[in-house]
Amino acid sequence: MKIKKFFPLLFLLTVNWTLFPSMMSAETTKADNNGIIDLRILETTDLHAALVNYDYYQTKTDNSIGLVKTSSLIHQARSEAMNSLLFDDGDHLKGNPLGEYLVRIKGIQKGDIHPVYRAFNYLKYDAITIGNHELNYGLKFLKTVLKGAKMPVVNANVYSAIKAKPYFKPYVILKRKMVDKQGAAHNIKIGVIGFMPPQIMKWDKANLEGKVIARPIVETAKEFVPIMKAEGADIIIALAHTGIDSEPYHPETENAVYYLSEIKDIDVILAGHSHSVFPGSTYKDLPKTNISEGKINGKPVVMAGAFGSRLGIIDLQLEANAGKWKILKSTSFTRPIADENGNPLVKTDKKLYKLIKPEHQETVDFLKKLGI
Ligand code: MN
Ligand code: MG
C-alpha cells in the first residue's frame, strides 16, 4: 500500500527535477533579452545650504525649505521603487548664513566634513555635480570640502588653465545591479556627467582666472558622451547645473538644457540653476516640449526648484533589446515639501536633523550674538 501511494509522487518529483534546470535557463535568457526595469531617478538641486527648515533672517521655522524635509520625500520615493538613484545638481554650499558661517567664521579644517556633505553621505547620493556657487569661496576651499563627499562629484566643462584637461572628474560610470519586473537581476552601467554655466569666468573672475577655464556646455557634452558610450554606459544622465531656454544656442549659452536634450546619447537631464520647476507652467510654450510627460525633444527632464522645496522624480522604464538598454517610457514630475501657503506636507527627517544640528545651532547662536 505504502509503495503504491508513494510511486506517483516519486514520478512527479523526477519530472520536476528534470524540467527545473531547463525552465530556469529559459527564464534567464528571456529576462536578459526582454527584461523590463523600472528605474526611478531622484533629484535635488540648488539647495543653497538650506539643510534645515529654518529662516535665519527672520529667525523662525520655514516649512517651505530644507533638506530635512526633502529627505522624507526621498525616503518615500525610494520605498515606492524597485530601483532608484539619487543625484544633486549643484549650488548646494552657499546661499544662507549657515553656509557663510562655515566658511567665514568657523572654517573647515582638514578632516572636517561640511554638514552639506554629511547630509549627502547620510542620504547615500549616487553622484553629485557642483554649481557656479560652489566656486564662490575659491577653488582651495572647494577642493578641501569635497574630500568629505563620499559619492562621485562630476563636472566636465571646467578645465584646468594650465593642463588641457578637466579640473574635476568629468563623468563617472556607475555600475548598479537592478531588478526587473520578473525579479531577475541585471548589471546596468549608468553614465553620469556634469555641467555648469561658462559665465563662471565672469562671475568668479578673481577666484578662477589663471587657474581654470570654462568650456561651452554642448560642445563639451558632444566630446564626452561618445567616450562614455565607448566605456559601456547603458544610459547617460546629465547633471546639468543649467536652466531651460530655447533661444538659439551659442558657446556662451548659460541655460543649455534645451540643446543638451538634442544630443543623441544623452538620455536623461537633471536641470537646475534657474530655481524653477520643470515640468511646470513656466515652460508651457517651450517648443518640442511635453509638459504632462516632462519631456523636451523627447528626453526626460526634471528641475526641482530650489532650497529643497521639491524633490525631482523621473520614472523610467528600461527594456533590453539585443543586449542594449533602451528607455521605453518615462514620466517626470516633482513633489513639494509644502503647500502654497507654506504648510508642511511631510515630516522632518529627525535623524538627518540630528546630524547637522551642531552647525545649525552654532549659526543661530552666532547670529544672535550679532543681534540679528
Ligand atoms: Mn542656484
Ligand atoms: Mg547656479
In CATH, the architecture is: 4-Layer Sandwich
Q: Tell me the number of structural domains.
A: 1
Question: Could you tell me the mean pLDDT?
Answer: 92
Radius of gyration: 24 Å
DSSP E strands, number: 18
Given as residue ranges, the uncertain stretches (5+ residues, pLDDT < 50) are 1-33
Q: Would you state the CATH class? A: Alpha Beta
- Residues in β-strands, percent: 25-35%
Write structural notes for this entry.
With 372 residues, the chain is α/β, with parallel strands linked by helices. It has a single domain, classed as Purple Acid Phosphatase, chain A, domain 2. The chain is built from 10 helices and 18 strands. Helix 3 (97-106) crosses helix 10 (350-370). The N and C termini lie far apart (93 Å). Mean pLDDT is 92; it is low at 1-33. Magnesium ion is lined by residues 91, 131-133, 241, 273.
List keywords for this structure.
372 residues; alpha/beta; Purple Acid Phosphatase, chain A, domain 2; 8-stranded mixed sheet; 6-stranded mixed sheet; 10 helices; 18 strands; globular; binds manganese (II) ion; binds magnesium ion
